[in-house]
Specification:
Number of domains: 2
Strand content: 15-25%
CATH topology of the largest domain: Rossmann fold
Number of helices: 7
Length: 270
């Protein structure tokens, strides 16, 4: 039985985690943390902490996990570079799954987008569109940033020069589109849960790859699967691709050394 504490338990994903967890008899929620709650008081009860809180809170939670040798699953987005660096410094002490999106569909799409970019080549311009509900605080979304990093890596190999992100386009005469740019556009409105589209466009030919989440349960199920998986890993930094067995190896990624992981264990809800 894997015992879990949820931080950000009153948030949208926190509530989805609480509602979804009973479907998985292998898991037990033993604590809930929200504003003004102290993780230190219940950290000893759990095996892993799932964090869907706020970017400023994640580092403190990670430090508590590291002191107590508890695994961590991070779903919070919007961290500053300084916050990311400090959290990553703890990966030598505990296993951490840190993903921009816990949807199985999105993680499969990451691989498809990479392959499409390689196949179509630099003749196809690339644009990333994302839309979320009006309450989302950060932009672009963490998932859109992941798409960009994947596409940037491929495109820089093809062009042998630096590729930049073009976040929206200003009004006026902005000049022709540069081959070494990837557009990222963020839209906010209503109660849209998660909508991402990657567009490849060449003269006379447009290809779109799209993923849309219709329920937050998809993220909850992925995060719960990650929690069950990470408690069996060595200290290190992992992502949802590792959990799903989609990474063939743990080589250098963004100058961070990933530790070898065992095959993914897929949980089946009852």
């Amino acid at each position: 039985m894997t015992k879990i504490v949820i931080t950000g338990s009153q948030g949208r994903i926190g509530q989805a985690l609480l509602a979804t967890a009973p479907q998985f008899p292998q898991l037990e929620i033993v604590g809930k943390i929200d504003l003004d709650d102290d993780l230190n008081t219940i950290i000893s009860r759990c095996d892993v902490v799932i964090d869907f809180s706020f970017h400023r809170a994640t580092l403190d939670f990670a430090k508590i996990c590291a002191r107590n040798r508890k695994a961590m699953v991070i779903g919070t987005t919007g961290h500053t570079n300084a916050e990311k660096t400090q959290i990553l410094n703890l990966k030598s002490q505990i296993p951490i799954v840190w993903s921009s999106n816990y949807s199985i569909g999105v993680n499969a799409l990451f691989g498809l987008v990479r392959q499409m970019a390689k196949t179509l080549g630099p003749e196809f311009d690339i644009e990333i569109l994302e839309m979320h509900h009006k309450h989302k605080k950060d932009a672009p979304s963490g998932t859109a940033k992941t798409f960009f990093e994947i596409l940037k890596e491929v495109r820089e190999e093809q062009l042998e020069r630096h590729v930049t992100a073009k976040q929206g386009r200003p009004e006026g005469i902005v000049g022709e589109r540069d081959q070494a740019e990837i557009g990222i556009h963020s839209m906010r409105g209503g109660d849209v849960i998660c909508d991402h589209t990657v567009i490849f466009a060449a003269p006379g030919d447009v290809v779109e790859l799209k993923q849309r989440a219709t329920s937050r349960e998809t993220f909850a199920r992925g995060a719960l699967q990650a929690a069950s998986w990470v408690v069996r890993q060595n200290p290190g930094l992992y992502d949802m691709q590792d959990v799903l067995g989609l990474n063939e190896s743990h080589s250098q990624r963004n100058d961070e050394r990933y530790y070898a992981a065992s095959p993914a264990h897929v949980l089946v809800p009852h």
